[in-house]
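pls design
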């Protein structure tokens, strides 16, 4: 009897609740967990500058970034792959550490993965002729033996610092055409970064599970990663950082972690360790604060785009 009396109220509540709950939830859900991945660490210092290493700079900027994101989005959980100068998970080699980064991101149910790295460009090599040396050789045999002298140029070799500067934001390379998803497994030449020395196995498109993950990435995470990466690069440009061509795609081993994480992911090269001026900037408070502010601003825009469904929001990942 009691149940019967309550029925109209129950149905009214049941009718009203889901839509309001859904709206609130979908507003909150877009960035529940963000994974921040400071590149390198411990025995892997990454690129070396004149007074600092990539591992140190990446860690300092990542910690500031996490703090700033926490202040801006108090409901978002921040997961760091490392918080001290060690390889993530205290692993003993880079390959295991790389896997740990991806596994942690996935098991944390991350909605976004941000890797922080620093770039490096090799010194420019020069050479010039500084003189000639007379070299004597003999040709032929026996009585036909002839003495030959010739002048050989003498060279001086030296290097000068590479002036390369600016930021680069990477996403995992992928052909937009799903039929060409196999191209993901191709290895491209690395630039500057030390990461490519790791011996990690790249995804194998003939494995159905990995192929499925590539397709999901192609259809969903790629678009989001590109949107976020583009906001970051545009922000750096507006801060006056040197433009190096916008968002780039790369599928070397070092960036494998982006593909391995079942979520939108970007890798930000915040500046060049090999450029003294930029090394100073990314080590200094002003530089760190500007880099962090830019990524947080990009995140605000990205979140807003997700919430207003300018880029479609996905439900929990299959991997
Ligand atoms: Zn790196």
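designed seq:
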């Amino acid at each position: 009897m009691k149940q019967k009396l309550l029925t109209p109220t129950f149905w009214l509540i049941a009718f009203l609740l889901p839509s309001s709950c859904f709206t609130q939830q979908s507003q909150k859900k877009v960035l529940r967990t963000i994974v921040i991945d400071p590149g390198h660490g411990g025995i892997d210092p990454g690129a070396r500058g004149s007074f600092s290493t990539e591992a140190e700079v990446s860690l300092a900027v990542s910690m500031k970034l996490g703090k700033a994101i926490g202040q801006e989005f108090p409901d978002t959980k921040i997961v760091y792959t490392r918080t001290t100068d060690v390889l993530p998970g205290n692993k003993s080699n880079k390959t295991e550490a790389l896997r740990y980064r991806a596994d942690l991101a996935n098991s944390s149910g991350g909605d976004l993965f941000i890797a922080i790295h620093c770039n490096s460009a090799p010194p420019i090599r020069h050479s010039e002729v500084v003189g000639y040396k007379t070299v004597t050789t003999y040709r032929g045999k026996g009585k036909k033996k002839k003495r030959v002298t010739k002048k050989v140029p003498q060279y001086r070799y030296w290097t000068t610092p590479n002036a390369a500067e600016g930021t680069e934001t990477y996403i995992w390379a992928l052909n937009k055409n799903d039929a060409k998803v196999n191209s993901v497994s191709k290895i491209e030449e690395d630039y500057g970064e030390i990461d490519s020395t790791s011996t990690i196995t790249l995804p194998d498109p003939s494995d159905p599970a990995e192929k499925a993950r590539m397709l999901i990435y192609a259809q969903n995470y790629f678009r989001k990663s590109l949107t976020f990466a583009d906001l970051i690069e545009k922000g750096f440009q507006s801060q006056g950082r040197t433009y190096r061509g916008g968002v780039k795609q790369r599928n070397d081993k070092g960036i494998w972690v982006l593909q391995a994480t079942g979520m939108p992911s970007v890798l930000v090269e915040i500046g060049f360790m090999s450029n003294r001026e930029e090394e100073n900037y990314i080590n200094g408070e002003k530089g760190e604060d500007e880099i962090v502010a830019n990524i947080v601003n990009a995140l605000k825009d990205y979140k807003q785009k997700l919430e207003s469904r300018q880029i479609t929001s996905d439900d929990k990942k299959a991997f």
